[in-house]
Amino acid sequence: MQSDRPLWIPSAEFIEQTPMKAFIDWCGQRFTKTFADYDAFHQWSITERADFWTAVWDYCGVIGNRGERALINGDVMLDARFFPDATLNFAENLLRHTGSGGALVFRGEDKAQSRMSWDELRALVSRLQQALKAEGIGKGDRVAAMMPNMPETIALMLATASIGAIWSSCSPDFGEQGVLDRFGQIEPKLFIACDGYWYAGKLQDVSAKVQAVTRKLGVPALIIPYAGHAETLAASLDNGRTLAGFVKPFTAGEIEFAALPFGHPLYILFSSGTTGVPKCIVHSAGGTLLQHLKEHRFHCGLREGEKLFYFTTCGWMMWNWLVSGLALGATLCLFDGSPFHPDGNVLFDYARDEQFAIFGTSAKYIDAVRKGGFTPVSTHDLSSLRLMTSTGSPLSPEGFSFVYEGIKPDVQLASISGGTDIVSCFVLGNPLKPVWRGEIQGPGLGLAMDVWNDDGQPVRQEKGELVCTKAFPSMPVMFWNDPEGAKYKAAYFERFDNIWCHGDFAEWTEHGGIVIHGRSDATLNPGGVRIGTAEIYNQVEQMDEVAEAICIGQDWDDDVRVILFVRLAKGIALSDDLVKAIKARIRSGASPRHVPAKIIAVTDIPRTKSGKIVELAVREVVHGRPVKNKEALANPEALDLYANLAELGN
Q1: Is 170 helix (H, G, I), strand (E, B) or coil?
Q2: Cα–Cα distances in angstroms (integers) from residue 590 to residues 83, 413, 442, 493, 506, in the given order
Q3: Bigger pLDDT: 499 or 274?
Q4: What are the phi and psi torsion angles at 115 (to 5°)?
Q5: Could you give the residue ranges of the DSSP H alpha helices within 457-560?
Q6: Residue 320 and residue 267: Cα distance in Å, rounded?
Q7: N or C: the chain end with fewer CB closer than 10 Å?
Q8: Is the preceding omega at residue 342 within 30 degrees of 0, hence cis?
């Protein structure tokens, strides 16, 4: 899989100019330490967590009162508390900048474009804050939004956070039950929705869904104009208002920022919900802010005035991650809609026009660009682009190569992985280290991430569970409606005592990087040997005949056999020769043990709203078991393709 040369090597001059290098030098002076290299600094960051996170706070100039204590009960993960005496306000830290410079840029396919300056954003947040207070919303109340990734969404979140209320969002493509499964659990005081959105050039009407959700939640609704009929939709609701009506009584003034504890709830995010009702994961203002400042400033090298882009919806934690870029004075570039409308160049057009410094997307998107035959390296001026990030699923080695061959040869490519559970990354980019094909560069500062085998022993260059052995600030505060913490403990701490077990199947590489082989609960066990599904996808999805694939383990003859489903390229049929070619590719590229017992063609592959394929749901259908929460899926009808297949009965 690996080549003997990196795809990218930071020059000495590049390293000298990175915020990461400046921070390491600053910490060395402050704590009278000498760090031989990044690895030594990382070790210090997890050994001396109180000093490290204090340094992040001070170096990044967090607005707030830090207090004297940085960490208490640090040896017990569920009892650890960072900055127990501190007070801060998340929104105040994101709105520290003023002036006519750009805060937000927005494109909604080819239907909408807008820009918002820092002063304009602050003015809107001021009016929204006053309106929320007038609505009786205060500390600890929930505000729920079913919104596109547009400037008004960010302003509403900041206004919510400014008063200490808790923000939760999803994207408008969620079905009615999917919205209720999430927001019904947290009992919001206000429901915010758009009046429609565009996808692939088509207007998607959400009126009936908004009416039903509002009625069943039993709360006032705020309708944000996007599709042109906000007033009509608002008027159809028992207690509905438009944005204009909501803020009309108020004039912009100074924003009042509530001083709140470090651990005060900021966001409620949701698990995918493909195995039951989604878990409501509550994240703190302080933990989210510190973790994102660290990742943006040091791991991404983000500077004031740079353009930061992530292709995400408001139902994915990468939206929350993106928004935090405001704290460093970055201009956020927002996009809503299909990344292939009117064609696959649309996001690269945006990158060229706005001069993105950082372009964030998913592994699936990179693969789709490659398979679509697009080569931005020859069609677009991307000279401003210095960092490309990829997450959502493991990026294949071929995907790594394509970024350098087809997009930009001198860009730093950072495959990143973490998730909703920590609203951030366990492993991500590092501007001081090379990029090796197929590898995530390494663990994040302050995170005692490791790979353990089933016996709880650390392993190197061997597959195992991704764990974190020490507490960190962005651990969830709690799960909503989990008073005894039983769901929280079950999610992360049942496998190993006092150790966070993340649920990823991972491996350290010889270069000190990480490869994610897929989710632990989706690993295959033929003959008792654990195999990551990503290893199979890395082989079969590079074949031109295969558009995408999904792989499961089927219980068979007191063992497990590997079943591979493939969605083929247009005009291709699954012939005996193609089956042989797929098996040969897997056998030579992975191992004989990875070769599927059956290969079956399907016309669609089920996925979540954020684009992740759902192996567990397919496995349940194949075994005749019910899938508990189809509302979590973007295309639940696809599951029917996997039921009662004759090919799986022999």
Answers
A1: strand
A2: 47, 24, 23, 32, 16
A3: 499
A4: -140, 150
A5: 486-492, 533-540
A6: 9
A7: C
A8: yes
SS3 state at 357? coil
Once rounded to an integer, what is the mean pLDDT over residues 214-238? 97
> What is the distance between the alpha carbons of residues 273 and 630, in angstroms, rounded to a whole number?
8
Token pair, residue 131, equals 């309106």
H or E element: which one contains 221?
A: strand 221-224
- Contact call for residues 55 and 43 (beta carbons, < 8 A): no
Two tokens at 69? Answer: 């204590």
Alpha carbons within 13 angstroms on the beta-carbon side of residue 375 total 7
Residue type, 66: R
The CA-based dihedral angle spanning residues 293, 298, 304, 307, taken in that order and rounded to the nearest 10 degrees = -90
Spatial distance between the Cα atoms of 418 and 554, rounded to a whole number of angstroms = 28
- Measured CA to CA, the distance from residue 513 to residue 440 in angstroms comes to 6
Question: How much is the pLDDT for 640?
Answer: 94
Instruction: Give Cα separations from 97 to 101, 114, 354 (angstroms).
Output: 9, 19, 20
What is the H or E stretch that residue 382 is in?
none
CA distances in angstroms from 310 to 138, 203, 242, listed in the order given: 31, 23, 28
Report whether 102 contacts 172 (CB < 8 A): no
Q: What angle separates helix 38-47 from helix 19-30, to the nearest 10 degrees?
A: 60
Query: With contact defined as beta carbons under 8 Å apart, do 185 and 277 qualify?
Result: yes
How far apart, in whole angstroms, are the C-alpha atoms of residue 323 and residue 333? 10
Distance, CA of 603 to CA of 623 (rounded, Å): 20
Average pLDDT, rounded, for the chain: 95
pLDDT digits (tens, 9 = 90+) for 460-508: 999 999 999 999 999 999 999 999 999 999 999 999 999 999 999 999 9
One-letter identity of residue 186: I
Closest CA to 551 of 543, 495, 559, 540: 540
* DSSP-based helix, strand, coil % in the chain, nearest 5: 35, 25, 40
Q: What gap in Å lies between CA 525 and CA 517, rounded to an integer?
A: 13
In angstroms, rounded to a whole number, what is the distance separating the alpha carbons of residues 428 and 440? Answer: 6
Which residues neighbour 434 within 8 Å (Cβ) at sequence distance 6 or greater? 6, 7, 8, 9, 10, 441, 511
Residue 561: burial class (beta carbons within 10 Å; 0-12, 13-18, 19+)? middle
Structure tokens at 371: 């398979």
Q: Which two tokens stand for residue 286?
A: 């302080």
Distance CA 518, CA 533 (A): 6
Structure tokens, 257: 């920022």
Q: Measure the CA–CA gap between 239 and 170, rounded to whole angstroms.
A: 21
Rounded to whole angstroms, what are the CA distances from 614 to 352, 426, 604, 619? 34, 22, 12, 9
**Nearest in space to 272 (alpha carbons), one of 393, 108, 158, 361:** 393
Residue 597, classified by CB atoms within 10 Å of its CB into exposed (0-12), middle (13-18) or buried (19+), is: middle
Average pLDDT estimate for 6-30 = 98
Q: Label the pairing between strands 500-508 and 424-428.
A: unpaired
CA proximity to 454, closest of 462, 465, 446, 445 = 465
Amino acid code (one letter) for 442 = G
- The pLDDT value recorded for residue 631 is 78
CA dist 342 and 109 (Å) reads 8
Task: Supply 485's token pair.
Answer: 């913490």
| Bridge partners (DSSP) listed for residue 464 | 506
Looking only at the bridges linking them, the beta strands covering 559-568 and 546-556 are: antiparallel
